[in-house]
Structure formats: structure tokens, C-alpha cells
Amino acid sequence: MASPMIHFFSILFLLQTISAQTIAPAPAGPTNITKVLEKAGQFTTFMKLLKATQVADRINSQLNNSNQGLTIFAPTDNAFATLKSGTLNSISTQDQLQLVQYHIIPTLYTMSQFQTASNPLHTQAGSSDDGQYPLNVTTSGNQVNVTTGVVDTTVSNTIYSDNQLAVYQVDQVLLPLALFGAPPTAAPAEAPAPSKPEKNVRAASDAPSGSSDSSTDASSAVAVNGYTVKGALVVAVITAMMMSVSWL
User: Fold this and answer.
1) Burial per residue of 4-24, b for 16 or more beta-carbon CB atoms within 10 angstroms, e otherwise
2) Using an 8 Å Cβ cutoff, are 168 and 105 in contact?
3) Which residues form a coiled coil (predicted)?
């Protein structure tokens, strides 16, 4: 009797083992960008911006209600810490939204696909064709370089990747040219044409006050003195003639 019982329990145990192995695991929950970043760590500031601008909700809704892929460049907390103090507070709420969306490409790019990507990449911040939000990528071997026109950085790690979402770590905040670029410099003014040297001849109208009267007085004095000398000579001649006559 013991042998049949042993066989019975052995068969029961085997059936339970097979059943446990064939049951599929519970499906994972919907993709949540915040949970992805929380699990990775060191992305607290970026998560706060995603929540404050409500971009996180839009990402989650898009991932779970459409087949459109997304690529996200996630700056680390250290990347935000290296920004100049007050950088984020110096821009408006709308510009903060543009900044967050600038880190999101509405297309799924694997690391290898960056090698054939056409620049500039279109981000959710707007069309790159108008020159406001250009984002360019270049590759060198397995390294992916990201250029905004303000900063240059590289993809340092793949945080998450599936058939719809790719999240890459970058060690600098991607600052768009439209928000943080230097204002265009004005063209240098043309140098003025060299002026002709002035002659050291002072016009009569430029003479100092009182000089005209002084000149007039001097001329008059010369003229008077001239007539005085001539008169004295005439008187002397006449006197000499009269004396000559008297001697005769």
C-alpha cells in the first residue's frame, strides 16, 4: 500500500511543478518615465521639471496609447548643478517647457541608428528647420555626440530601452540656442574717413575779440606817423629855401 501512495504524491508534485513553470508572469505595468528615472537614480531635477511642466504625463500617455516611439536625453543632477546659479529661474514657465521638450525626440533612436540620423533632429520643442531649436548628433565609433549650438556633450549611458522608448544619460543640460544663445553681435562700424589737415591760418572772423580794433589802431598809428614825417621834411625844405633867399 505504501508504494501506490508514494507514486500518487510523486505524480501530484510533478503536476504542480509543471503548472508553476507554464504559468506566464504577470504583465508589467504601463511604461512610466518617472519610474524609469527613479529606478536609474541621479535624475531628481529632471523628474521635477517633467512633472512641473506636465510633460511626464504626456510622455506616459503617448507611450501607452500610441505606437509612436520616443527618445529622451536625460541630464543628471550633476549636469543641472553645473549650470550657472539661477539659470532655470531666469526663464519663464513657457521657456522651461521648451527646455524640457528640447530633450525629447518624437522618434525612437537606438544607439546604432544615430549613425544614420539626419541633422538637425526634430525635437518636441519645435521645428529645427526654423533654426530655433537645432539639435545635431554625430558619432565616432560607439560614441554619440550631441550638439545644441550652446553646449556639446556625449551620451554616457543607456538608462532604458525597449521597442518604443529609449532614455539616454547626458552629463550636460541641453541648452537650446533660442533660449541661451548669445545675442547676435552688431557689425563693426566703418571707420570715419580721415579729415584734411587744417591750415594754420586764422581767418579774420576767427580772430580773438578785440584784435580787429587793435589792428585798426596800429594801422592808423603808422599812417599818422608817416604823414608827420613827410610834413616835417616839407617844413625843413621850405625853411632852408627861405634862409637861402635871405642870404642873397
Assistant:
1) eeeeeeeeeeeeeeeeeeeee
2) no
3) none
186: left (phi over 0), alpha (psi -120 to 50) or beta: beta
Q: What is the DSSP letter of 205?
A: G
CA–CA separation, 157 vs 169, rounded Å? 5
Q: Are 74 and 170 in contact (CB under 8 A)?
A: yes
Q: Decide: pTM greater than 0.70.
A: no
Tell whether the model's pLDDT for residue 14 goes beyond 70. no
The tens digit of pLDDT for each residue in 99-111 reads 999 999 999 999 9
Chosen CATH of 31-168 out of 3.10.450.330, 2.30.180.10, 3.40.50.300, 3.30.70.20: 2.30.180.10
Closest CA to 28 of 121, 165, 209, 125: 165
- Domain boundary assignment for the chain: 31-168
pLDDT above 90 as % of the chain: 50
